[in-house]
Design goal:
alpha+beta, about 375 residues, 14 strands, five-stranded antiparallel beta sheet
Length: about 375
């Protein structure tokens, strides 16, 4: 699908280039039509063409947005700053930029804008009027200069709201120029087109993030998939080789889980698995990672954890679920599980070796006495 991101006047200019030559051999009609367009407008349209042809899709969303801003600046010596930011309904009162470029960067120590600015649904322009007082609406886009207005080289600002499929997400692209009538003379159309490109980058980045997340996380438990937890283990081994820190794993399996499925049904059983995964997350540190290995088997990678710490964590797992039933819907179910620990180097080096060692040294919550926990 071809997107028409260019204003109608730009399309007319492009069409005029194709006008047949006059009998004198001169493209007089084309030159007259083109002459009606300012150099600024043509330069901005040129950037749009270049942008769509050269912006690499391999960039991350943040990098692509910054690249977009960087490509706009050379089109006009009057643009002092380009600011792009995103927020949610529960964001702080001021929003930090996702990307910000321009010669005016040295004029302020911070570049946060009020979240209220993101409530607009249509492009809006503001002129710098420092005598209007702090209650003036213009202060919103010029807030970074409020402490030192004498440093402000921007005389006008144009904000382009960015739309998202998510109702709670908002975005905004702001252009600052050194002349109060710059945007009225140049028109809003090209800047709206830049905003549309920014929206596309934003939405594609969100979609890519969602697809990556879905590929890495088990949809039922929210833990890492088997393939992903193997990758995490390999990264942890590489880190261990560098800093010589210990590395351990926990292998955990739910015993006789088929009986729960037979008794309560698969829907309740699935919810129990999800609740179990959430509860185990509460036993882990931020540096630990958990993954769903098989239907009722789980693997936890524990960086900077030696044999003693791993065995203590295994005992903590058993003690927690021995004394805390899983509560789901109207059911309170005490799970039986077995946990085994293995340490890299001492018990094996390959993941298969460590899992084999852990399964050969399982401790079960149904057999371990209270004083052993």
């Amino acid at each position: 699908m071809k997107l028409n991101l260019f204003p109608s006047w730009a399309q007319r200019a492009a069409d005029s280039e194709q006008f047949v030559e006059s009998t004198t051999g001169k493209k007089t009609a084309a030159s007259v039509s083109t002459a009606t367009l300012s150099a600024e407008q043509l330069a901005l349209v040129g950037v749009l063409h270049q942008l769509l042809q050269t912006l690499p899709q391999a960039y991350s969303g943040r990098e692509s947005v910054k690249r977009l801003c960087q490509m706009i600046l050379p089109a006009s010596p009057h643009i002092r700053l380009v600011w792009v930011g995103f927020c949610q309904d529960d964001s702080e009162a001021t929003i930090k930029p996702t990307a910000i470029v321009g010669k005016a960067l040295s004029e302020s120590d911070h570049w946060q804008l009020a979240k209220d600015c993101f409530d607009y649904v249509a492009p809006f322009a503001q002129a710098a009027d420092w005598e209007a007082g702090h209650d003036s609406d213009f202060q919103a886009l010029f807030a970074p200069w409020q402490a030192h207005p004498e440093l402000c080289s921007a005389k006008a600002a144009l904000a382009i709201p960015l739309r998202s499929e998510k109702a709670r997400m908002h975005g905004m692209m702001v252009f600052y120029a050194d002349s109060q009538d710059y945007f009225s003379n140049a028109g809003f159309a090209s800047f709206q087109a830049f905003g549309h490109v920014c929206e596309v980058i934003w939405k594609q980045s969100n979609l890519s993030h969602l697809l990556t997340r879905q590929a890495q996380l088990d949809s039922l438990t929210g833990l890492l998939t088997r393939r992903r937890i193997v990758h995490v283990y390999e990264e942890a081994v590489a880190a261990t080789a560098t800093d010589e820190s210990p590395l351990s794993i926990l292998y955990c399996q739910l015993d006789d889980f088929h009986k729960i499925n037979d008794l309560y049904g698969w829907a309740v059983a699935d919810n129990i698995l999800a609740a179990f995964a959430k509860d185990t997350g509460g036993q882990l540190r931020k540096t630990d990672s958990g993954g769903r290995w098989n239907a009722t088997e789980f693997l936890y990678v524990l960086p900077a954890t030696d044999t003693v710490d791993a065995e203590n964590l295994a005992a903590s797992f058993l003690g927690h679920f021995k004394n805390h039933p899983v509560n789901i819907e109207n059911w309170s179910i005490r799970l039986a599980l077995s946990v085994g620990a293995a340490t890299y180097g001492a018990d094996g080096r390959g993941l298969d070796e460590l899992i084999h060692y852990a399964t050969q040294h399982l401790l079960s919550s149904s057999t371990v006495a209270e004083d052993e926990l």
